[in-house]
């Protein structure tokens, strides 16, 4: 639907009448909201920057009446095209809905969807409370986007993902009616759990305007280790090995030798002088000072026995240097080609070695640069494929490698996305993840909650080939900063 059609014009007229200055139709604003981190652009007819939640209901009532596509947007940091208005229509920008209240007595936070994750963490910390989910984008991404994608991050290995902290979600159905799923209670066993269905539904089943989150006690101390290991077998069995020792790391991150080689070439120094690129682990323990001391001792013993060599940091400044290795691994890959696809596949813990082996094989056979790093404590490894989109032949090889990777992940009992969602980027592969009955059930849910298919249409269910689109050339705000903020900074 475009504003050229009569009903599109009528809908826009009603929108202006009811929301006035919140509606923007100037080209610059529409262009600004035409893409997200995937950098594929599709121009909306209007951007609606609501100032209060009730306006969301008004927007949806009009959109539902006229069948206008509505793409809800937080910060637009999705890496999958989830916030790209691929069917045009309206972008509903919720970044101004950023009310935030910490309820110390009940250990919870009541937030608008526009609250930036790091701001919630900082505010909770003022009262000794802690909101653990920490996507690397936490300095700019919003809670609405995190709920919609069931965002993860570095600390999930100990603390879980966004869903584990959501007590209640208020928001609007596609028809503009207000609903509240769950309550501000620790338990809820009353009726269908549509709250958890909304979490991870990528703006396709409803629009979240009120979020109540569980908070826990803030750990007071951390200790960080960086170790290099003889083999992937040793490094990637660390989740099981550490559990058997009674260790519960807050962060357990892996980098493959290819990634280490890439970053050493990029920074020009060896991470561990005299040692060829080998698998590395960055591990952090947290808790009270006594807990960290005890956990740190156990971890030190394991490192001394298992690693080729390791370093540890007791202060934040020292830890910063170890974190640099993880940060530079990712940013160095960007130097290699015009396009870097960051896949966030997840496999059972005992299948991680098999996954890394199959990536090595894909790298050789397709002659594509592929680096693996990520959250090995969760089996959630980021597989990064670098290619030059101007080079058709190389792009074809990269796409073949990507297809094979996704099939392999599914055959290992894993999932094509562990934290970023499907959006547009994973639509060519998502069908393979589900059997007919599962796919039909998902479609039935979508039809029941959004019968006119106005909420983020084109996502999850319709196949879109991102590699056939030209990416736009823009520098995003987070690309100006370091890509991987340090987790302790919150
Ligand atoms: C440098 C970088 C690092 C990243 N690291 C991580 C990471 O470690 N872990 C991780 O999980 N992700 C990561 N991401 C991906 C991204 O930041 C997350 O998916 C985040 O949750 C998106 O939040 P956002 O506010 O930007 O949402 P947007 O990009 O605006 O939207 C994302 C999706 O959520 C929907 N949506 C947004 N708000 C609402 C709402 N209120 N109601 C209903 N639907 C809504 C949108 O329609 C869209 O489908 C990273 C991204 C970047 C650029």
Task: Produce the secondary structure layout.
Elements lengths: L5 H14 L3 E2 L2 H6 L13 E4 L4 H13 L3 E4 L16 E4 L6 E4 L4 E4 L5 H9 L3 E2 L12 H7 L6 H4 L6 E7 L5 E4 L12 H5 L8 E8 L1 E2 L3 E8 L3 H4 L2 H7 L6 E5 L1 H11 L12 E8 L1 H18 L2 E5 L2 H18 L5 E8 L5 H15 L2 E7 L4 E8 L4 H20 L15 H7 L2 H14 L27 H4 L10
Parallel strand pairs: 2-4, 3-4
Antiparallel strand pairs: 1-2, 5-6, 6-10, 7-11, 8-9, 8-10, 12-14, 12-15, 13-14, 13-17, 16-18, 17-18
CATH architecture call of the domain at 100-218: 2-Layer Sandwich
Low-pLDDT residue intervals, each spanning 5 or more residues: 483-490
| Helix/strand structural class | alpha+beta
The hetero compounds bound to this protein are: flavin-adenine dinucleotide
Please give the oligomerization state of what you see: single chain
Main sheet?
7 strands, antiparallel
* First and last CA, distance: 42 Å
SS field, number of helical segments = 17
- State the total count of DSSP E strands: 18
């Amino acid at each position: 639907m475009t504003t050229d059609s009569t009903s599109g014009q009528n809908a826009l007229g009603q929108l202006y009448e009811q929301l006035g200055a919140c509606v923007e139709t100037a080209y610059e604003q529409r262009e600004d909201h035409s893409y997200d981190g995937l950098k594929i652009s599709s121009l909306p007819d209007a951007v609606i920057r609501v100032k209060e939640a009730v306006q969301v209901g008004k927007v949806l009532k009009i959109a539902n009446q006229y069948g206008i596509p509505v793409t809800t947007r937080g910060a637009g940091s999705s890496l999958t095209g989830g916030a790209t208005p691929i069917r045009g229509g309206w972008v509903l920008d919720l970044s101004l809905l950023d009310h935030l209240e910490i309820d110390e007595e009940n250990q919870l936070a009541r937030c608008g969807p526009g609250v930036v994750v790091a701001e919630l963490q900082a505010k909770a910390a003022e009262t000794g409370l802690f909101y653990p989910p920490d996507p690397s984008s936490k300095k700019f991404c919003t809670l609405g986007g995190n709920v919609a994608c069931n965002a993860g991050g570095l600390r999930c290995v100990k603390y879980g993902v966004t869903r584990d902290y959501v007590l209640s979600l208020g928001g609007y159905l596609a028809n503009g009616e207000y609903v509240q799923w769950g309550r501000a209670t620790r338990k809820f066993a009353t009726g269908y759990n549509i709250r958890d269905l909304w979490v991870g539904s990528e703006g396709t089943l409803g629009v979240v305007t009120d979020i109540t989150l569980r908070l826990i006690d803030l750990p007071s101390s951390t200790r960080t280790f960086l170790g290099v290991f003889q083999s992937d077998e040793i490094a990637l069995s660390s989740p099981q090995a550490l559990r058997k020792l009674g260790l519960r790391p807050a962060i357990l991150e892996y980098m493959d030798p290819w990634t280490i080689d890439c970053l050493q070439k990029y920074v020009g120094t060896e991470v561990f002088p005299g040692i060829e690129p080998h698998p590395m682990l960055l591990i952090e323990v947290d808790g009270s000072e006594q807990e960290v001391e005890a956990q740190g001792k156990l971890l030190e013993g394991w490192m001394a026995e298992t690693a080729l060599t390791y370093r540890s940091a007791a202060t934040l400044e020292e830890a910063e240097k170890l974190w640099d290795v993880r940060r530079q691994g990712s940013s160095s890959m960007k130097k290699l080609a015009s396009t870097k696809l960051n896949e966030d596949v997840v496999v059972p813990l005992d299948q991680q070695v098999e996954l890394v082996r199959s990536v090595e094989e894909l790298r050789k056979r397709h002659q594509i640069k592929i680096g693996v790093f990520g959250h090995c404590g969760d089996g959630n490894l980021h597989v990064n494929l670098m290619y030059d989109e101007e080079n058709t032949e190389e792009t074809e090889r990269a796409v073949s490698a990507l297809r094979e990777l996704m099939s392999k992940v599914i055959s290992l009992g894993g999932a094509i996305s562990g934290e970023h969602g499907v959006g547009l980027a994973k639509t060519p592969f998502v069908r393979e993840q589900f059997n007919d009955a599962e796919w039909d059930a998902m479609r039935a849910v979508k039809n029941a909650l959004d019968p006119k298919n106005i909420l983020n249409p084109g996502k999850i269910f319709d196949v879109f080939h991102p590699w056939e689109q030209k990416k736009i050339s823009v520098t995003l705000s987070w690309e100006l900063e370091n890509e991987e903020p340090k987790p302790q900074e919150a």
